[in-house]
Design a protein that fits this description.
Layout (H helix, E strand, L loop, with lengths): L2 H4 L5 H8 L4 H29 L2 H7 L7 H8 L2 H6 L3 H36 L1
Helix pairs in contact: 2-3, 3-7, 5-7
C-alpha cells in the first residue's frame, strides 16, 4: 500500500543527502520517514481496522477456543432471545461489551488523527 508513496526513484532530498555523504540509514530516518509519516499512519490505521473486525475468519476458520470479540458478542444472545428482544440486563451487558470493543479503535483513531494534524502543521 505504501509503494506509490515511497516510489521507486530517489527524491531530490535523498540525492542531496547522498552527495553530502549521509548514510542510507540516516537518509531513511531523517528524510524519508518524516516525508511519509502521514501515509504510514493512515495505512497502519486501515490495517488495524481490517484486522480488528475480521468477523468471518473468526467464525468459520477458528474454533471456539480462538474467538474474536464480534463473534463472541453474537454468541452472547441466543436466537430466541434475539427474536423476542431479550432481557434488559442482557442488552445492557451486550452494550457494555460493544463499548469496550470500540474503545481501542477510537483511541487508535484519535492518536493517528493527532499525529496527522501535527504532521500537517509541521509541513507548512
Amino acid at each position: 500500500m505504501l509503494q506509490p508513496v515511497l516510489g521507486s526513484r530517489p527524491t531530490e532530498q535523498e540525492e542531496a543527502a547522498l552527495i553530502d555523504s549521509a548514510s542510507h540509514v540516516a537518509i531513511f530516518f531523517t528524510i524519508v520517514l518524516p516525508m511519509v509519516a502521514a501515509s504510514i499512519a493512515a495505512v497502519a490505521l486501515l490495517v488495524f481496522f481490517l484486522c480488528w473486525n475480521e468477523y468471518l475468519f473468526a467464525v468459520y476458520l477458528a474454533g471456539n477456543e480462538a474467538m474474536t470479540l464480534p463473534p463472541w458478542m453474537v454468541g452472547q444472545l441466543s436466537m430466541k432471545e434475539a427474536q423476542i428482544g431479550g432481557e434488559a440486563e442482557e442488552w445492557a451487558n451486550l452494550s457494555a461489551a460493544t463499548v469496550l470493543m470500540m474503545a481501542p479503535l477510537l483511541a487508535c483513531a484519535a492518536f493517528v488523527r493527532r499525529a496527522l494534524s501535527r504532521t500537517a502543521l509541521w509541513q507548512r
